[in-house]
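Title: Prediction job returns without error message
Component: structure pipeline
Severity: low
Priority: P3
Assignee: unassigned

Description:
Job completed but the reporter wants confirmation the result is attached to the right record. Sequence as submitted:
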Amino acid sequence: MKNLRNFKWIALFVAFAANAQQEKGIIGTSNWLNNWTEFNPKKVEYNETNSILYGKISTNTTLYKKNVYLLQGPVYVTSGTTLTIEAGTVIKGDVATNGALIIAKGAKIIAEGTETDPIVFTSNSSQKKPGDWGGLVILGDAPINKFGGTASLNYEGDPSQTIYGGTNPTASSGVIRFLRVEFAGKKIKGYKDYNAVSIAAVGNKTIIENVMSSFSAGNAFEVLGGDVTLKNLVTLRSTGDDFRFTQGAQAKLDNSLAVRHSFSSGATRARAINVTSYEKKDETDFTKALTNVVATHCTLVNSTDDLNRDLASGLVKESVFVAENTGLTLKKSVISGFSPAVVLDDEIKPEAGGLKKVKLEELYFNNCKGNIFLENTTNNEDLEDYYGNPQFANLYEATPNTEMFIAWDAKTPDFRVKIGKITASK
């Protein structure tokens, strides 16, 4: 009995230590990045394509692991159709024809990979680079805040297949689990740029978990309107934003990781989290919901090997941007290596209660050149005093990434924070 009691105490101690270790940033009793993610996708070789997808998929279709598929031009899964993708399937976007997969409004995608057998979307180029092909687009009929309640993404191809928006926040566009999207975000002159993953007016019955975007030339994940929960997402060296929310998106982002790099960011500012309510104010129906995002247990990190050099060169920008008429709750998260950590739109008026919708709580600001600023200002004393109040429980530290995270220079790194780096923070 004594040994059994001792064993129970040991088990309780281990569980407590694991939870304490993961107080902020991404969490998990083990490294949930293992097996299904890939942090060096240029080195991975896949089999040659043996099946071509093109035009419209208008009957229920299954893609099988035994084949390697080529997306030739934009491929549309039309309304009323379900596309099922078997675990372990590889799908390549064609560089020459701007390959993309578009799940139209009213259609569904069932792409359930596994931890040891993820689904992979990648480029068919022998020399892979960001923006080789289009990306994965999922369109639904949940609400957006543009006048008329619907909109169309102006991609090259059939505009009738890129309409999104409606009145059903509980709609389902399917299930996506354990899936990677590599080297997407094609820019096509005269048309809207692709993102790695575009999620437009998707309803809250849709499941999107354990999805990784690597080396996107556009945004890694762009959420346009809808009501969606995103869990265990990973972005690696996106040129655009890692997570962009707009058009009245009602979104939850949970336990997700953005790994930026100074040399990968675009010439214009790109953020780990970018929250706006609209692209054009005069197209917005203010009787509809404005964007509101709740992001919890996120790790936003600049992975540069020489932060001081990149800061001096002006290559490091802010990690989070919050526009006017927008709500963001960011809590229990880590922001490491940015300049500064957070920028608020200069139309947000703190003295008029403008901070009520911007909740920054239980955050770990590490190695940031400044923490929270209003746009186009250099004096942030009032904001620092406000968010530095003990009620927000924000912490500040200057620790190298190699010392802060459990495993930094590994084939599959572990971005959970070491326990001592939080408990020792001021």
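Comment from assignee: result matches the submitted record. Residues 1-22 have pLDDT under 50 and may be disordered.
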